[in-house]
């Protein structure tokens, strides 16, 4: 059976990591059995979570893991997509994972001390003191460097959140008349979207882009129905807390 290595659950959502939430959602959407090993990324491949172990090998990076799962366990989610829909899925994935994700990371790691403390408690809850504070400080410096390297971290906060609102508005518009991003059936891009959006809407850190996202009923309803359908044991997300 596949072992999914990820952060401990927090905040009444599948995972406080967007990519851990994405991968576990994909596994549930695809009906692939797995077990969870809660861990931190200290010894993970590439130094990041999630990663999986399957048939004696470790695989990292959620994109590469999903490609592996599709090749070895079948492609029950994306096999019905047209070439045009596949192109749309790739574009949405890039917007979500390579732009809006970084806006959310800025909100958690750099936008105000209260947000950072909430984030630190969730991510590093498995470590004892004083190691928790030491490791958290090291990762704070690492993420700050990543934000600057990506470019988001070099902008004023007002500009960052304005860019994030544009992303949120685009996804909300796409979901106005759909159950899922590409129609009435889920596809792997919905795992990506849910992982990012649930961590924006139901993560207890504050930001102007979160405030705006909470006004978009299409996004709130989308996250609610995915969590209720695929993670019923967690109950309804606590939006806005």
What does this protein structure show overall?
This protein is an alpha+beta fold and 241 residues long. The protein has a single domain, classed as Glutathione S-transferase Yfyf (Class Pi), Chain A, domain 2 (Up-down Bundle), CATH 1.20.1050. It contains nine helices and four strands. The model has no long low-confidence stretch (mean pLDDT 95).
In brief:
The protein has helices at 18-30, 62-73, 83-109, 113-123, 131-150, 157-174, 188-201, 208-213, 217-230, and strands at residues 2-6, 34-38, 51-54, 57-60.
CATH topology: Glutathione S-transferase Yfyf (Class Pi), Chain A, domain 2
State the order of secondary-structure elements, H for helix, E for strand.
EHEEEHHHHHHHH
How would you classify the helix and strand content by structural class? Answer: alpha+beta
Largest sheet: 4 strands, mixed
What are its keywords?
Glutathione S-transferase Yfyf (Class Pi), Chain A, domain 2; 9 helices; 56% helix; alpha+beta; 4-stranded mixed beta sheet; 4 strands; 241 residues
Compile the SSE list and pairings.
Blueprint lengths: L1 E5 L11 H13 L3 E5 L12 E4 L2 E4 L1 H12 L9 H27 L3 H11 L7 H20 L6 H18 L13 H14 L6 H6 L3 H14 L11
Parallel strand pairs: 1-2
Antiparallel strand pairs: 1-3, 3-4
């Amino acid at each position: 059976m596949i072992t999914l290595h990820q952060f401990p659950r927090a905040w009444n959502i599948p995972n406080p990591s967007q990519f851990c939430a994405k991968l576990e959602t994909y596994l549930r959407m695809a009906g692939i059995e797995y077990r969870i090993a809660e861990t931190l990324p200290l010894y993970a491949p590439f130094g990041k979570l999630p990663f999986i172990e399957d048939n004696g090998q470790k695989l990292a990076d959620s994109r590469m893991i999903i490609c592996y799962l599709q090749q070895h366990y079948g492609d029950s989610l994306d096999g019905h997509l047209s070439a045009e829909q596949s192109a749309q899925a790739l574009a949405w994935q890039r917007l979500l994972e390579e732009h809006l994700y970084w806006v959310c990371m800025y909100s958690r790691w750099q936008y105000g001390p209260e947000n950072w403390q909430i984030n630190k408690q969730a991510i590093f809850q498995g470590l004892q003191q004083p190691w928790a504070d030491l490791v958290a400080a090291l990762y704070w410096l690492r993420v700050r460097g990543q934000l600057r390297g990506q470019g988001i971290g070099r902008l004023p906060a007002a500009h960052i959140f304005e860019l994030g609102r544009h992303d949120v508005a685009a996804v909300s518009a796409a979901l106005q008349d759909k159950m899922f991003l590409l129609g009435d059936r889920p596809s792997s891009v919905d795992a990506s979207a849910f992982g990012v959006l649930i961590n924006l809407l139901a993560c207890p850190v504050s930001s102007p882009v979160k405030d705006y996202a909470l006004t978009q009923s299409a996004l709130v309803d989308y996250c609610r129905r995915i969590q209720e359908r695929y993670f019923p044991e967690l109950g309804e997300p606590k939006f806005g807390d």
